[in-house]
Design goal:
alpha/beta, 26% helix, binds 2-acetamido-2-deoxy-beta-D-glucopyranose
Length: 261
């Protein structure tokens, strides 16, 4: 039904909506975040000495129509590039870059609907060259688009890089990109982890909790400490510098990370 509503709107407003609708209905933004980030993002991975965690306040960019303010699942990169129709019933959270639309993007669906149709329960937007991401006003209008799920955005470039770097600099993480078959194969493990508050091996688990969340749910294992550290300037957009790579490699645990930054 949601699909039908959206399609109908797209056909009904051909002159208002450009053909390139295929797309990420969000764009990178440098102005300091309009609102105060109020939602708590908690990432956890691995276990024991190979485990770690990271916490950050993020922006609640779009409230899903049926949201209770709490979303949990493995955090996986998602883009329209090379996307198949494969779906999964395992809950997961889509990590979506707002930096650019892919060139061969579909002309019908927006990226959030594509992720939602493939089983995503929420999305986290990030930019690797600007501070944050902003949802297009048209997309945020509930009379034009169904709010299929909660959408959050990292509030700073540093936070985005912290999240992104976890995938390459933490060797306990094997799965970084959405793969329906892999998620199906991990169905039991992931659901067990979600109900016990632990982490399925190989994944980064994300928990997003709005300040007005009505669902409590089991707490995710508390990470060693919270990092809201100041960047060494905002010019890390050209990719992780060598010194940062070395820093991150050395600092396997969050506490070590804290000391070094
Ligand atoms: C939380 O607050 C947002 C924004 O004020 C609102 O749209 C949403 O419905 C609230 N969620 C709950 C579960 O009350
Ligand atoms: C998509 O496929 C092309 C060609 O096979 C490959 O070069 C590219 O890395 C793929 N992109 C993603 C996001 O997997
Ligand atoms: C992607 O395309 C949509 C529709 O044209 C546009 O609103 C949005 O700003 C674009 N996003 C980026 C990152 O270019
Ligand atoms: C944000 O600032 C960075 C660094 O100054 C710049 O490279 C980037 O293009 C800017 N992004 C936008 C959306 O203007
Ligand atoms: C994953 O499991 C669901 C439910 O059994 C099924 O509909 C879907 O096709 C499966 N996806 C893949 C890629 O096997
Ligand atoms: C986190 O670090 C702060 C400042 O160093 C400290 O006050 C706080 O007790 C630490 N919290 C935990 C859970 O270790």
């Amino acid at each position: 039904m949601l699909q039908w509503t959206r399609t109908w709107i797209i056909f009904a407003l051909p002159s208002l909506l450009p053909l390139s609708l295929a797309y990420i209905p969000a764009s990178p933004l440098n102005a300091s975040a309009v609102e105060t980030p109020s939602t708590q993002l908690t990432l956890t991975w691995g276990s024991g000495s190979s485990g770690g965690g990271y916490q950050e306040k993020v922006l609640y960019s779009l409230v899903g129509a049926e949201s209770n303010g709490m979303d949990k699942g493995p955090l996986l990169h998602f883009s329209e590039a090379n996307l198949t129709d494969a779906t999964t019933t395992t809950p997961w959270i889509a990590l979506i870059s707002c930096d650019r639309n892919v060139t061969d993007a579909s002309t019908i669906d927006d990226i959030f609907t594509l992720a939602w149709e493939r089983g995503a329960v929420a999305a986290l937007l990030y930019s690797l060259y600007s501070e944050s991401c902003e949802i297009s006003p048209v997309y945020a209008d509930p009379t034009a688009f169904a709010r299929v799920m909660d959408i959050f955005s990292t509030p700073t470039l540093v936070a985005s890089k912290m999240v992104e770097d976890r995938y390459t600099l933490t060797d306990t993480i094997k799965y970084g990109t959405f793969d329906a078959k892999l998620l199906n194969d991990s169905f039991a493990e992931i659901n067990a982890a979600l109900s016990s508050g632990s982490v399925a091996p190989g994944y980064i688990f994300a928990s997003l909790s709005a300040s007005n969340a009505t669902a409590g749910g089991p707490d995710t294992p508390s990470p060693a400490n919270t990092t809201t550290e100041k960047p060494q300037g905002n010019d890390v957009s050209q990719g992780t510098t060598l010194s940062m790579i070395i820093l991150y490699v050395i600092t396997g645990t969050v506490s070590a990370l804290l000391c070094s930054v």
